[in-house]
Amino acid sequence: MKSVHKGIFILLIAMVVIVTSGVFFKSFQTGSEASVPQPSPPAPQQERAPETSVPEPEPPLPPEPEPPPDGAVIDHPLPEDPILTNGPWASAHFLMDEYACDCAGYCDGWPAAMDPELLEKVETLRCYFDQPIIITSGVRCERRNAEVGGIPNSWHLSGHAADLYCPGVPYDEVARAARELGLGVIEYPDQQFDHVEIWSQKV
Asked: Where are the bilayer-spanning segments (predicted)?
């Protein structure tokens, strides 16, 4: 009887050892797998939108200049009045040099003498407005006359004409006053100046 009990006891011990060994082995296997880092599945790639180049906006074109309306005035700085420089005076407010040819040295500045009557009337015009009048062109040599687009028989060539403006005074008012003084006048609205001449000298 004792030997039977002993056999059963040994059999139970063997079964416990087997079961315990199996459980231990199984847990060891699971722990090993858990400790090995598993590769994470790749993140789904997002499709990139095709890059489109945005064209640079073109700079706006500057507005085209409009022709000045009648009654407009030239806004230029005024010279000293009278202009204090050396040289002979054409009249009380004008130096002779103001009427000289402004070419680039093609002549000595005086291809012809200025008409005294013209000088007198321009001085009277200056006194009428009681403010400076600017001479932009007096006598011209033929080469200078061609450069500025003057007509072939321009009276500038013989000293019988001058181009001028009065700062702050509309060109048409200057033209009206010049006509009242007996001067011939051609108005240049786009450039805001007047051409004055002595008609009596025409042949």
From this structure: 7-25
